[in-house]
Amino acid sequence: MTGAPERAGPDRAPTRTDATAVVEAYLRCLDAADHPAATRLALGLLDGGWTVADVLVDVVAAAQREIGLRWLAGRWSVAQEHAATHVSEQVVGAVGARIPPAPTRGHVLLACVEGEWHALAARIVAEVVRADGWRVTFLGASVPGRHLVSYLHQAGPDTVLLSCVQPHRLIRAGRMIEACRAAGVPVVAGGPASAWTAGGPRRWALPPGAVRPATPPGCWTGACRRPRTPVGLRRRTRTNT
Q1: How far apart are CA 49 and CA 182, in angstroms?
Q2: What is the pLDDT of residue 40?
């Protein structure tokens, strides 16, 4: 399906069955670096009954994966990719502003591992988890391990979520995971890097020392409760963002 999402009438919002067309429409906004249009599209989906996870995971994150492939194939320049990512960052902020401010569950601390500067996927996870009723403290890109542990003692979160996009940061991610566990805080580790081994991609996500495997943004919320005992590995059913 190409072009704008099909509509049955002038007042019909796109439905979940229009997802492919919605992503294509959103990609056109990114291609034009059109922040207002991208924001209108995303907020219109929310108004039409899409959830925060629907919009951020199935549209924004899906589009970001596509522009990454376009850059990798040489179809987009670094400048185009950066411009598009900036638009998506603005959209994530606009969607996040629609989330009710009062958390009803626990406190989650989310950070990118030290040296990891790709923070958009983690920010998407932050908003999805927040929409599920959690208080989220997002520390952003490249958080030094010792600073993260210090902050754990100050903030006392129920769970730490760590994001790692680049495979060569996994050793550092493992050290940060162990440091969090030593502080008595459960860890959920995720991101594309955790789906790789030395020989290439794998379907199991096993960051060193993680108490759970990496999970996609829509599934992080179920892993945020402090477990009484270490949680065993579960097979991933979707692809990480």
Answers
A1: 42
A2: 96
Q: Are 110 and 163 a contacting pair, CB within 8 Å?
A: yes
Euclidean distance between CA atoms 188 and 223, whole angstroms: 7
The predicted model scores a pTM of 0.73
In angstroms, what CA-CA distances link 123 with 57, 88, 178, 227, 232?
11, 11, 23, 24, 26
Q: What is the mean pLDDT of residues 64-79?
A: 92
Residue 17 burial by CB count (10 A; 0-12/13-18/19+): exposed, middle or buried? exposed
- The CA distance from 165 to 174, in Å, is 13
Q: What was the pLDDT predicted at 197?
A: 45
Q: Which helix (H) or strand (E) holds 190?
A: strand 187-190
β-sheet with 135-138: strand ranges across: 135-138, 107-112, 159-163, 187-190
- CA distance linking residue 218 with residue 110, whole number of Å: 15
Tokens of 148: 């993260």
> Which amino acid, residue 241?
T
Task: Give per-residue pLDDT as tens, 107-116.
Answer: 999 998 888 8
Name the amino acid, one letter, at 188.
Answer: V
Q: Which two tokens stand for residue 110?
A: 């989310």
DSSP 100-169: -S---S-EEEEEEPTT----HHHHHHHHHHHHTT-EEEE--S---HHHHHHHHHHH--SEEEEE--SGGG
* Nearest partner of 234 among 212, 202, 201, 208, judged by Cα: 212
